[in-house]
Amino acid sequence: MADNTSTTTHLATTEKTSILRVITYAGAIIAFLIGSGFATGQEILQYYASYGFWGVFGTGSIVLILISYVAVEFFLTGRREQFEKPSGVFYHYCGKYLGTFFDYFSILFVFLSFTVMISGAGAVFEEYYGFSKFIGGIALAAVVGLTVWFGLTSLVDVIGKIGPIIVIVAIALGIYGIVRDPEGISTGNAMLPNLDVTQASSNWLLFGLSYVGFCMLWLAAFLTALGKTVKNRREATAGGLVGGIAFSLACMVVGLGLLANMAQVYDAEIPMLVLAGDLGPWIGALISVMILAGIYTTAIPLLWTVSARFFDDKTKKFKYLTIGLAALGTVIGLVLPFSQMVNVVYVINGYVGIVLLALMIIRTIRHLATRSKV
């Protein structure tokens, strides 16, 4: 009888593992990370293509390994610990005092990242559509605020489905950039020293760690909260790995596409629209929509993370704070140029994130060592 019960329990657990949920979790990670920086190409230009081959492949490999680890770790920790508030993840890895620092620092950084999304939407409306950037920024803030109003569950359903589509389109555009002029990759790599390209750091290795660092501060509270809803370890692990690997590979492909067209994109606010320019106006229009969708899918969890730090999801106070933060973020995001905001906000916070990464790895090693002794 005991064997039958054990078998039934095992089968029930196996049946609960859903490929659709894994894809949705991976899609949520991808959608969160693409944002205005990836979707516009500005982030990939500054963090990958501007360093040439070392940036695309060296940095890409670092990001692939570490982002995949981070995503899985946050998922599993959230599922295992069931924190009352998502910010509990910082105290878990960093202790009381450093945990408090990361708790409040991450909220400030996440909010500033939300303002970068507003700035990115404004740049698209201004550079592509010829409208005032205020129209784009205010419209994004309004739509994002309303989406967050309905809470985490609806949020994941929305962005988890949109994210993979955006990445597929971005990869296709990157491949087009490569195929259009394969020799342009070597040419672009050779001309980099003579171009005034904004770079995220002094070298590609430091950038790779910095890039993972700022992504971590984005993902920490969101994936920890999402981890509480994951059915089993298999779904958590698979969702984190698929999301991290897919995002990293997309960055490398798009980076090569930009490198192959470096002479045209190095000083553009929205490099992806430059790549799409030769494909015809309707392709350009499609890419502009994709960029706005990418900004939207990242702005939602950023805004949710800040509101959820102070009030429970879907409560009246949560909803009112969400609208207030959306309004404040709009004002801030429409003041500075988009490329400047990407460089300043992401880079500074990336270095702080490196410290969190080190503490996470130490905690993971200790956890594995403890389990091996049991």
The proportion of residues in beta strands is: under 5%
CATH superfamily: Amino acid/polyamine transporter I
CATH class term: Mainly Alpha
Q: Whole-Å distance between the termini?
A: 28 Å
Largest sheet: none
Mean pLDDT: 81
SS content category: mainly alpha
Uncertain residue segments: 1-15
Whole-number total of structural domains: 1
The total of helices stands at 15
- The residue fraction in helices comes out at over 70%
Quaternary state, please? single chain
Kindly report the CATH topology: Amino acid/polyamine transporter I
Series of secondary-structure elements, N-terminal to C-terminal: HHHHHHHHHHHHHHH
What's the shape? Answer: globular
Structure explained in plain terms:
The protein is an all-alpha fold and 374 residues long. It is built from 15 helices and no strands. α2 (19-40) crosses α9 (204-227), α5 (88-129) packs across α9 (204-227) and α5 (88-129) packs antiparallel against α15 (338-373). The protein is globular. The two termini are 28 Å apart.
Structural topology:
Elements: H1 2-15, H2 19-40, H3 42-47, H4 52-81, H5 88-129, H6 133-149, H7 152-180, H8 184-191, H9 204-227, H10 233-259, H11 262-265, H12 271-276, H13 281-310, H14 316-333, H15 338-373
Features:
374 residues; globular; Amino acid/polyamine transporter I; mainly alpha
